[in-house]
Amino acid sequence: MTIVDLTSMVEPQGELQDKINGMLDSMSEDISNFCFQCGKCTSGCEAFILLELEPHRIMALVKNGFIDELVNSDIIWTCMTCFKCKERCPQGMAPVNVLFALKNLAVAMGKQIPSGYTNMLQNVLGTGLIQAPKEVLNRKNETIDREKLNLPPIQRPEDPAKFQQIIMKAATETLR
Amino acid sequence: MAEVLDLKLTDLEDFACCGFPVKSTDSGASLVMAARNLSIAADRGLDICSLCNACTSVLTEANRELKGNKELRDEVNEELGKIDMEYKPGVKVKHFSRILYEDIGPDAIKERVTKDLGDFSFSIHYGCHYLRPKKIYEGFDNPEDPRTVDELVELTGAKVIDYKNRLQCCGGAILGVEESIALKMAKEKLDNVTTNDVDALITICPFCSIMYEDNQRKIESNFDVEYKLPVLYYPQLLGLAFGLEARKQLGFRLNKVRPEALLKKLEGDE
Predict the structure, then answer these.
(1) In angstroms, what separates the C-alpha of A129 from chain B's closest C-alpha?
(2) Where are the domains of chain B?
(3) Helices vs. strands in chain A: H and E counts, helices first
(4) pLDDT band, very low/low/confident/very high, at A11 (cuts 50, 70, 90)
């Protein structure tokens, strides 16, 4: 399931394409002006060794207009969001934010995204939490919940419908 | 533990997820969620003490952006207005460790230490979002060579043991995308930490703890290794130094990797 399936029940996304184009324009301008391909981001990237994410290449690809290839690629979803690239870039750029934008774009364009992310979004929309507290069985086959562990209840939106209303709305539009 | 330091913590009713989990899929929704939480705190006249690194970064960043950008604030408030909420600048957001370090201060904490943990040694995992992006944290700690949690651990008398690649990320961000890789990253850290003889790994973020503690057994079976490395959330450690009761008051009964050896060593000290 794509995010568009999740959100399309709210309202049609007429101006989405324009917004995406606007986002792309501002993104590519930043990159062409500043990134000089030193590769410092990639040298410290947490997802480089095991997942072959190369942030400097992402920057070059965006600069050269390979947006469609990127939003269709799995590689953008391997970013660990550790922010080391942003911290270390000598030009003050943030590949991590370019990756956030590319992921957002992929979602807005209705691309297939990793199920882990759709599940998270579904949970958050449904309960207001990334994961609702679960009951578990212990070794003695007893059901254990927070109350039995003397833990206070988890706070969550008191009116889930209201919560969904604003989040769904935001999820169908690209606010930034 | 906070009570010992006269810190009053209140659970905020109606609070929801910070917004970080949906930032990758929709930054706009993430921002609205963060703003909603901030407005709940503002209504109650309270600041936010966050217990998780990612919550800290997302709430701090949203707070900064909304405060400094009126256009964005109006846009977000138009959404919040539909459910009779409004974001107003003024709420402070700080990680619990930062409150300990900055607002309570090492001296005041040291005064309350009643049990010296000098026989213990620990390694620390800071976690990415406690330190980065540096800009949003106003220069608090050094993202390339952090020291604040080292100092907080040393207040208990315990030794801090450095290890290879200590700034490595826990991998939690891709747990739901590439589980095997995430576990491999956590394994690397557990390998590096257990090269030395330490009593536990100290974390300050529950999500990092998920990687090193909740998933430790899975890593052990997947990679055919054995660590049995207890993972403590920093307040648990400080609580021990304050002389609080480990199982009843500090939640040691809930630790997934049994800290029995550590507790036995502690009792032996007395």
Answers:
(1) 5
(2) 10-91, 106-269
(3) 10, 2
(4) very low
Distance CA A158, CA A144 (A): 24
Chain B residues in contact with A27 by the CB 8 A cut-off are none
**With contacts defined as CB-CB under 8 Å, which chain B residues touch A93?**
none
Chain A residues near residue B55 by CB distance under 8 angstroms? none
Nearest C-alpha neighbor of B32 from the set B49, B45, B16: B16
Q: Which residue has the higher pLDDT, A150 or B166?
A: B166
**What is the C-alpha to C-alpha distance for residues A57 and A63, in angstroms, rounded to an integer?**
10
Local confidence band at A57 (pLDDT 50, 70, 90 cut-offs): very high
Give the model confidence (pLDDT) of A95-118 as tens digits.
Answer: 999 999 999 999 988 898 999 898
Contact: B21, A130; criterion CB under 8 Å: yes
Residues 121-160 of B with CB under 8 A from A: 128-129, 132-134, 143-144
> Which residues in chain A have Cβ-Cβ distances shorter than 8 Å to B24?
77, 81, 100, 103-104, 117
Tell me whether B28 touches chain A (CB under 8 Å). Answer: yes
Which of A166, A168, A169, A172 best probes binding to B when mutated, by most B CB atoms within 10 angstroms? A166
What interface predicted TM-score (ipTM) does this complex get?
A: 0.93
What pLDDT is stored for residue A12 in this prediction?
46
Output b/e per residue, A27-58; b: 16+ Cβ within 10 A.
bbebbeeebeeeebbbebbbbeebbebbbbbb
- Look at chain A and report how many structural domains it folds into: 1
Domain spanning B106-269, CATH architecture: 3-Layer(aba) Sandwich (3.40)
Place of tokens 């391909």: A37
CA-derived radius of gyration, chain B: 19
Boundaries of domain holding A68 = 3-172
Q: Rounded to an integer, what distance in angstroms lies between the CA atom of residue B244 and that of residue A82?
A: 35
Does domain B10-91 correspond to CATH entry 1.20.1050.140?
Answer: yes
- Which segments in chain B show pLDDT lower than 70? 269-270
Q: Give B229 to chain A, closest Cα distance, Å.
A: 22
Contacts of B82 in chain A (CB under 8 A): 165-166, 169
pLDDT digit string, tens, across residues B125-151: 999 999 999 999 998 999 999 999 999
